[in-house]
Each structure stands twice: as C-alpha cells, then as structure tokens.
Amino acid sequence: MRETYDEQQAAGRLRVSVAAWRWATASGVVPAADAGPGLWSRAVVESADAEAVRAALPGPAGAWTAAEQLTAALGDPLPRCRPRVTPAAIGHLVRAGLLAYLGGDPAHPDVHPDQVAALARRRDLPALLDRHVPLGPDQAAVRLGVRRTDFDQLVRLGWITPTGTVEIDYKRHGGLTTVPLYSAEEVALLPVTRPAVDWHAVRATPAGHRSPLAALDPTDPADDVVLLAEVARIAGVGRPAVLNWRRRHPDFPAPVGGDDVHPTFARSAVVAWLLDHDKIAVPSTVPTATLHLRPTGAAPRRFQLWDPWVELSDDPEGEDRLTGWMADDDADTLAVLAAADASVSRLTAPGTDPLAIPGDVRVIDRFHPGSGGLRVTLAWPSHLRGHAARTHAGGLIHHALPHSAPGTDCQCARQNCGGIIPTPYCPEHGRAAEPAMEWHPAGGIRCARLTHPTPTPA
C-alpha cells in the first residue's frame, strides 16, 4: 500500500484533476505537503473530500485571459507609462507567490480566476507589477514614456542594466532571440534619480528628432558621482536636510572623492540609502491633472491628463499653458468643447493651487511623438486665470481681476492669488481692500459681494 503521494498520484487517488489538487492545497482545502517537499501522507490524501476539491476549482484561467484581466484593472484607457500585462507576467507573479500555479507552461501558466480577480482588485497592483515583473526593452520604454531609441541610449549610458534575459522565438522574424530584461522599479525610478534630465522634453521628442539624451556622453565618469546638492535634488529637499541626514545617520554613504567642503558620493550608494530610509519612493503611477470643463449650454465634463506640465505666465498680457497626455477620444471631445467657448471650473495639477479660467481656453497643439500616445497642449490668456473656490458653490472665484502686474507680494487675506498683485479696485465698490471677484457662467465677472448682500434693516 502506498504511504506517500505526489500531486499526480494524489489527484489520481481522488479522481480529480491535478489543477484541482494544486488549487486545493494552495487555498487550504487540503493540508500542505506533510511527507516532504511535494509529498502528502496517505492519511491526508484519504481524508480529503474529493467533491470539495472539485468544487474549489470550477475551471482554471489561461495566462492570456489572466493577463487581459489585470490589464483591464489598470484602467481603461490604459494609463500613460503603463505597459500591458503579458502572459509571461503571469508566470512571474506565480513565481512571486501572488498566484498559484495550476498547470500548463510554467512561463505562461494556468491560474485560478478568483485569485486573479482578487489580485486585480488590489489598490497596489501597479506597485506589485513593478516589483515582480521584469520588462523587455520595448515594455521598459513604455514604462518610462520614452521612445525605444531613447531607452537604448539610457542602456548605453549605463543608467540601467539588465537583471536577466529570456529567449523568445520570433519564428518568421529571426527565430530564437535572447532579449534582456530590466527591473520595472529601476526603470520607473530613473526620473527621480536623474533630476538633471528634462524628462518632459525627452518624452515629447517627436519621431525622427534628436533627443536631449543623445548629447550625453556614455564615457563621462563624473556621471557616477554626485554632490550634496544633487542628493538634495534627488530627494526633493534642501541641501541643509541632506547635511542633517549625513550628521545623524552613521550609515550615510561615505564620500568617494571631492574635499571636505564639496564631497562627492557614489550615485548608486546614495540612491540605495535614500530608498532604504524612505526618503524617495518608486513612482508606481504617473502624476495626473484633472480638468473640469464647463461647456456653454451643456453638462460639465471631466478630463484627465497624464504627466501634466503647467506653465503660468508672469505677464498679465501673456498666456498660460497646460500640456499632458490624453486618450485620443478624450482629446477629440476636449477640442470640440474648447472651440465652443467652454470654461474651466477647476484645474487640479501638481505644483499649483486649483485654478479656474472663465472661457477662452483653446487646444493649440496635439501630436503623437515617437514614444506613443497623444500629447495635448491647452492655452488661455493669463489675465483670466484665478483660483477655484474650495467651498463656495456660486461659480468660480477670482480675486481682484483684472490684475495689474506680476509679483509675489499678494496681500489677499482669503487665499493665495498665485503670485500676482491684485488691482485694489472693484468696479462696483470702488477701492475696497482686496475685493473678491466672482465669475458667473451667465453674468461674467462681478464683485462677490453682490451675491451676498447685507440684509436690509426692517
């Protein structure tokens, strides 16, 4: 009489599929192997409920189906700088212990659909994919939001190195080929660890044009070391903060050169220290801007722009601009609404307070650079810019529009006016101190006091 069973023998003993037995052990329907690696005792196998084992696995999902489900969970349309999940990624998630292997090709395994659904619901799914799923060169270029040629230049510069390889059979297109794999976390971290690069310019370089990366020298040894000022830029803090870390933390990397006043440090050691001490983090998502548009005579619409870049003019006669990546359909709709004299009731973007623009918002550029996606630029006269109300429901709030000159000494007591000097004159109320002007879709700009009149005494 057999005293131990491997998974094939245990499944045969219960007359269930091997996949069902694997899932039963992974989900706890039957105990884990108790007679050695991959072996179960006779007592465990004979005590297992065959019907419960069958019921636990209605049918495994193939790697392709699982990959499509996780891709859908990332968002529709797929967020900027986020490659699709591939069947090979399912194999990496199995090896990471996030999914149970139920059969098939280990590189593209079958998995449990309920477990895939649970993984798809996790809010940290993007971070999990970055941590456990390496990327090929094309996928890495998508993750970074650059052209493939620019990613190849990053490899030549030595800023990113492979963590492994995989052999792919392209059949009609060259046969078996060895493809390098890169850590998605290291790829995503490049804009943080290389702050001197104008990543917005790199990502917006059209096909056939020279990238800012092309001017960098792969043989420059100075690129491997950083001054304290560069460490501060990487961490997004001031130089005094870095001096304080160096003084307080004995494990702060030792200098590799320079002098007592201007020591230099190995970039890799500094980045590793900053990560270990939670001074920087791997960006799992791309910053976004949310644009609330109020079309004339139509319902408000909301649009999202990835990797936004806001340029606010210092000149009252100048022009503000917002550039970002959008889905093609959203960009088409935005262009139609903007042409119909829509206004922005609220623009929330990194690096600025919520803004509002009463009309005259235009789409001035849209193009598909070589890195893929659609890049859209909006513009509006800077004298229309104001700050969106946080609590008031009567429209858009502006302070003392029009403004007279750029500056940093705004005296408005209610909220920040964005570094412009307000005109201390209200057309309705004369030279009252810091009047608040309110924009109404039907009535234009007027003093906010008109909407909150003082009650007339009885």
Count of helix runs: 16
Structural class: alpha+beta
> How much is the average pLDDT?
83
How many strand segments? 22
pLDDT below 50 for ≥5 consecutive residues: which ranges?
Answer: 391-458
Percentage beta strand? 15-25%
Kindly state the percentage of residues in helix: 25-40%
Topology:
Elements: E1 4-5, H1 7-14, H2 18-27, E2 40-41, H3 42-47, H4 50-56, H5 63-74, H6 87-95, E3 103-105, E4 108-110, H7 113-120, H8 125-132, H9 137-144, H10 148-157, E5 164-169, E6 176-181, H11 184-193, H12 199-203, E7 225-227, H13 228-235, H14 239-248, E8 257-258, E9 263-266, H15 267-276, E10 288-294, E11 301-311, E12 319-326, H16 328-339, E13 343-348, E14 355-357, E15 362-367, E16 374-381, E17 386-387, E18 396-399, E19 405-406, E20 420-421, E21 436-440, E22 444-447
Antiparallel strand pairs: 1-2, 3-4, 5-6, 7-9, 8-9, 10-11, 10-13, 11-12, 12-16, 13-14, 14-17, 15-16, 18-21, 19-20, 21-22
Helix pairs in contact: 1-2, 2-4, 5-6, 5-7, 9-10, 13-14
What does this structure look like?
- The chain is of the alpha+beta class and 458 residues long.
- The protein is built from 16 helices and 22 strands.
- The chain has an 8-stranded antiparallel sheet, with helices on one face. Strands 7-9-8 form a 3-stranded antiparallel sheet.
- Strand 10 and strand 11 form a beta hairpin.
- Helix 9 packs across helix 10 (148-157) and helix 13 (228-235) packs across helix 14 (239-248).
- The longest helix is centred in the N-terminal third of the chain and has 12 residues, at 63-74.
- The chain is globular.
- The model is unreliable at 391-458 (pLDDT under 50).
